[in-house]
Amino acid sequence: MKGLIKYIILFVFIFIGSAIRMEGSDREPLLARDSSYVLRTPKADFLEKYKKDAAFDYTQKIQDGPTIWDRIKRWILERLFRMKASEGSLQALDIILYILATLVAVGLVYVVIRNRDKFLFRRREEEFFPDDSVEYTGEQEADAFVRLLAKAEQDNDYVLAIRVSYSGLLQMLDKKQVIRWEASKTNRDYIYEIKNKAWSRTFEEISRIFDHVCYGEFPVSEAEYQNIKRYFVDFRKEVES
Question: Hey, where are the domains in the chain?
């Protein structure tokens, strides 16, 4: 029995070895290296040659196109002056435009300084207190408006005089408790607030004159101002009596 097992194992090994040899014989033999292929190495200056070639320089910056200002200058030269835009003409135009801009700036500064009273503030005289205000704010006393009115009449500024007179009426009506002054109220609110019907109608007429003169920018002559002033004086006397 043991001898049979040995023969069987030997047979298996012989069979496997034969199969392996047959498989190896079926494979194609490896190709021999072709002698025409030669291993070559680049020369020492190979990379330097391409580094110096601008066509292979990918690190350079792409030049920016003309700006809007450059386009405007070209348009000025070519369309207005019928000149060919060149480097020299563009530089000359730059100088001319800078000079013109400087002259315009100087002119604007001169106009502002010359008319600073109109643009920035209304001139105040030294005898006026710093807290004097043309508009009634609920705090000024009557003498503040008296000073402002006298100064406006002296300067023949009748529009300002009417504005001061109206603010003085609001101050007087507030002190007499005929109205209750509030910054958010309009002149129409005060007309409805006055209980006395005759006073309300008169104040409405005065408010209409005030709106036309001060907000409608109507010029007022001395004669017209004297007629308007009587409305203010007569109304004040009627309420204070």
Answer: 68-114, 142-240
Shortest CA distance to 144 belongs to which of 171, 177, 180? 171
Q: Cβ neighbours of residue 51 under 8 Å, at least 6 residues apart?
A: 57
**CA atoms within 13 A of residue 100's CA, in its CB half-sphere:** 6
How many C-beta atoms lie closer than 10 Å to residue 121's C-beta? 8
Q: What is the gyration radius of the CA atoms in the chain, in angstroms?
A: 52
Q: Tokens 């450059």 correspond to what residue? A: 70
How far is 187 from 193, CA to CA, in rounded Å?
A: 10
Residue 155 has, within 13 A of its CA and on its CB side, a CA count of 15
Task: Note the pLDDT tens digit of each residue in 106-127.
Answer: 888 877 776 654 444 444 333 4
Give the rounded distance of the alpha carbon of 110 from its chain centre.
Answer: 26
Q: Distances in Å between the alpha carbon of 30 and those of 34, 96, 231? A: 12, 85, 127
Q: Using an 8 Å Cβ cutoff, are 181 and 170 in contact?
A: yes
Picking from 99, 65, 93, 64, the residue whose alpha carbon sits closest to that of residue 79 is 93
**Range name among 51-60, 118-127, 228-237 with the lowest pLDDT average:** 118-127
Q: Which of 145, 184, 186, 191 is nearest to 168 (CA)?
A: 145
Do you know the residue count of the chain? 241
Provide the b/e sequence for 220-237 (b: ≥16 CB within 10 Å): beeeebeebbebbeebee
What are the respective helix, strand and coil percentages of the chain, to the nearest 5? 65, 0, 35
pTM confidence score: 0.47
